[in-house]
Amino acid sequence: MKTAVTIMFQAPNGIGLGHISRLVAVALALRDLDPKLRMPFVLEGGSHELLERDGLPYVALPHHDHLQSGSWDAWSKDERNQLVAELSSVLISRMSPALVVTDSFPCFPFLAAVARASVPVVLCARKTKDESGYFREVARYRALLRAILIPHNPEEVAVPKELEPLVHYTGAIVRPVRSDARIPAISGEPRILITGGGGGYPRTADFYNMAMEAVARYRRTGPNTTCVLITGPLFKHWWDLRIPDGIRVVPFEPNFREMAAKADLVICQAGYNTVSEMQILGTRCISVPAERESDDQFARAAEAAKSLPHFHVYLGKDPGRLAELIAHSIAGPRPVSRLCASGGSSGARRAAELLLRFAEISLAGTVGR
Questions:
Q1: Which of 41, 72, 214, 280 gives a 20 to 30 Å CA spacing to 152?
Q2: What is the assigned CATH class of domain 191-331?
């Protein structure tokens, strides 16, 4: 019996969910193209129900941040790295991937194990605040790379000439929206969602408190309004939340896209995945960008607002002014969804088609040796 082809995904998974979410989008597109593919995920940390929801298998490595914590003080840094490298080697040996796909910032002990096994690597690399510094880091392991997938258009990212031969621009990569009877209903009119993505960044509670207070003020004139705050599975500052009456708070909802597609307004920050999803879903949106070390949320939100009339940006800290913008947004016409026929982004499909081709080339090279 012919052995099924394996494409392995490795995603960082610390304070945001964008890396794992993007690779899930590609894996789902791959499954549509070839249901027999084996697609194991190797995570640093948990899956937060994203993989369980879509029936994707995964195993977990110790998270880098946890390895630096006091609980691992009995082991030296070299011993910790060796542990991750050896666990990675076992996974690669047992699963025999034709291709390994990583996102943005690979786990380097894992990457070292991939290199020893001579498995080709494809990197999904999105735009960062310091592009030149990021691509200098990528150039360190250029010899391992079969390709670099960039979920943008060519004019959006400055790629160094030495890496250009590896680059394929796919456009935005986001997970599909699919009908699911298990999705919790948002009752009331209008319906507002508040999200901070994974919720792991410092001071996310400040954003949540301002957004909830703004919704509470809006509800004085629209008492039938319902609001759900999805804090994200990485949010830990529960005691800092000030929750007004009439707002429901849930830690996480893997069906967020389906809920957002049915909402009247989403109040969010400006992470890559969140903005890409709002652009595709066509839901009214107010983005409150925040400072990030490697990401320019302000530029991303401003660019989205230029072309999308339903996408608004709020840069202040006054919940009263935000409440006024909520009223203005909801009073406007509901935009038309920009979802493609498959229910997701064409970028995920393009990425999947490229990965299938790279896997076939890898397998052909293995047979030829």
A1: 41
A2: alpha beta
Residue 1 has a pLDDT of 38
Predicted TM-score (pTM) of the model is 0.84
The three-state (H, E, C) secondary structure of 120-155, written as one string: CEEEECCCCCCHHHHHHHHHCCHHHEEEEEECCCHH
- Domain map (residue ranges) of the chain: 7-175+344-368, 191-331
Mean pLDDT per block of 10 residues along the chain (369 residues) reads 82 76 93 94 81 89 80 88 90 95 88 93 89 89 93 90 94 76 56 90 93 96 90 91 94 84 92 86 91 86 90 95 95 64 70 94 67
Q: Residue 43 pairs with which residues in a beta bridge?
A: 11, 60
Distance CA 286, CA 315 (A): 10
The answer to whether residues 24 and 7 touch, using CB atoms and an 8 Å cutoff, is no
Residue 75, token pair as written in the block: 């082991």
Backbone dihedral angles phi then psi of residue 170, each to the nearest 5 degrees: -105, -15
CA distance 257 to 195: 11
For the record, the structure tokens of 89 come out as 């080697």
Q: Do domains 7-175+344-368 and 191-331 have the same CATH topology?
A: yes
- Distance in angstroms (rounded) separating the CA atoms of residues 313 and 179: 29
DSSP-assigned states of every residue in 312-363? EE-----HHHHHHHHHHHHHSPPPPP---TTSS-HHHHHHHHHHHHHHHHHH
Residue (of 273, 28, 9, 27) closest to 127 by Cα position: 273
For residue 16, give both structure tokens: 């945001």
Q: What is the pLDDT of residue 200?
A: 83
Task: Say if CB 153 and CB 171 are below 8 A apart.
Answer: yes
Cβ atoms of 162 and 182 closer than 8 Å: no
CATH code of the domain occupying 7-175+344-368: 3.40.50.2000
Tokens 């948990």 sit on residue: 46
CA angle 323, 328, 333 (to 5 degrees): 140
